[in-house]
Design brief:
Elements lengths: L18 E5 L3 H6 L5 H22 L3 E8 L7 H24 L3 E5 L7 H14 L6 E8 L1 H14 L9 H5 L12 E4 L18 E4 L9 H12 L9 H10 L1
Parallel strand pairs: 1-2, 1-5, 2-4, 3-4, 5-6
Bound molecules: 3-methylbut-3-enyl trihydrogen diphosphate (2 copies) and magnesium ion.
C-alpha cells in the first residue's frame, strides 16, 4: 500500500499519533554527567528503546521510527562507532525473538552496505522473521540520512523511466526507504537540541515537532505521554485556516 503525500491530500488525524519518529539524542551527555564513559550512555539508551517500543505498542501507535545512527555519525571516534555497532548486533540478537512474540514488525533502513557482513545478515534475518507481523512496525534508521534517502529514491525514479515532466510527489515518495509507512504525525527529539540532523527530510513536511531536554536514556513512558499530550494540543491545519478546520470537523 502506498501512502498519500500530506502536501497533496489532507491526512486523517487521530488522537493517538499513528506514526512517531524519534531522534534518540543525549546518550553521551547522560553518561558524562554521571562521570561515566559515553558508551555507557549508549548501553543505557538500548534499555530506553525497549521501554519506548513497549510503551508505543501499548498506546496503539502503529509505526515507531528510531534514528539510531546517522550517515554523519561515522565522523565520530572509531572506538565509539565500533561500540555502537556491537550494541546494535547484541540488541538484535537479544531482542528480536521477544519482538517477534509481541507481533512487532522490524525494519532497518539506511545505506546498509557500509555495515559489516555479519550485521547485514542479522538485519536481513530479523526483517524476514518479523515481516508477517501485524502489530507495531518498528523502524531503525541506521547509516540513514534524509538526503541520501531522497537521492536514492530519485535515482530509482529516473531509472524506472517515464518523462520527468510527469513525475509526481507520490512517484518519488514510493521509492523512499520508508514508503511502507505514512508520514510521521509526531517527531520527538530528546537531548535538548532543536534540529533535524538530516533525519526524515521529505516526510517531516507536516509533522508536529516536539523537543525535550530529557536525555534519551531517561526518556520513559511518562515522558512519551507528555509528548503525546503536547501533540494532542496542536491544531494540524495542513495549510488551511483554523475556521476551515472547525467546519470540516462539523461536517464529518
Ligand atoms: C545519541 O546520543 C546516539 C547516537 C547519535 C548514536 P549521542 O551520542 O549523540 O549523545 P550526545 O548528544 O553526545 O549527548
Ligand atoms: C542525531 O544525533 C543522530 C542520531 C540520534 C542517531 P547527533 O548527536 O548525531 O546529532 P548532531 O550531530 O548533534 O546534530
Ligand atoms: Mg548527540
Amino acid at each position: 500500500m502506498t501512502h498519500s503525500s500530506s502536501t497533496q491530500v489532507i491526512p486523517l488525524v487521530t488522537a493517538v499519533p499513528k506514526h512517531v519518529a524519534i531522534i534518540m539524542d543525549g546518550n553521551g551527555r547522560w553518561a558524562t554527567s554521571r562521570y561515566m564513559p559515553r558508551v555507557a550512555g549508549h548501553a543505557k539508551g538500548v534499555e530506553a528503546v525497549r521501554t519506548i517500543v513497549e510503551a508505543c505498542a501499548a498506546r496503539g501507535v502503529q509505526f515507531l521510527t528510531l534514528f539510531a545512527f546517522s550517515s554523519e555519525n561515522w565522523r565520530r571516534p572509531a572506538d565509539e562507532v565500533s561500540v555502537l555497532m556491537r550494541l546494535f548486533m547484541t540488541a538484535l540478537e537479544r531482542e528480536v525473538a521477544k519482538m517477534h512474540a509481541n507481533d512487532i514488525r522490524v525494519k532497518v533502513v539506511g545505506d546498509l552496505s557500509r555495515f559489516d557482513k555479519r550485521l547485514q545478515e542479522m538485519i536481513a534475518v530479523a526483517m524476514a522473521r518479523t515481516a508477517g507481523n501485524r502489530g507495531l512496525t518498528l523502524t531503525i534508521c541506521a547509516n540513514y540520512g534524509g538526503r541520501w534517502d531522497i537521492l536514492q529514491a530519485m535515482k530509482k525514479l529516473v531509472a524506472s523511466g517515464g518523462a520527468a515532466a510527469d513525475f509526481t510527489e507520490e512517484d518519488l515518495a514510493q521509492h523512499l526507504s520508508m514508503a511502507y509507512a505514512p508520514e510521521p504525525d509526531l517527531f520527538i527529539r530528546t537531548g535538548g537540541e532543536e534540529r533535524i540532523s538530516n533525519f526524515l527530510l521529505w516526510q517531516l513536511a507536516y509533522t508536529e515537532l516536539y523537543f525535550t531536554d530529557t536525555y534519551w536514556p531517561d526518556f520513559d513512558g511518562e515522558a512519551l505521554d507528555l509528548a503525546i499530550a503536547s501533540y494532542q494540543q496542536r491544531e494540524r491545519r495542513f495549510g488551511r485556516t483554523s475556521e476551515q478546520l472547525v467546519e470540516s470537523k462539523k461536517a464529518s
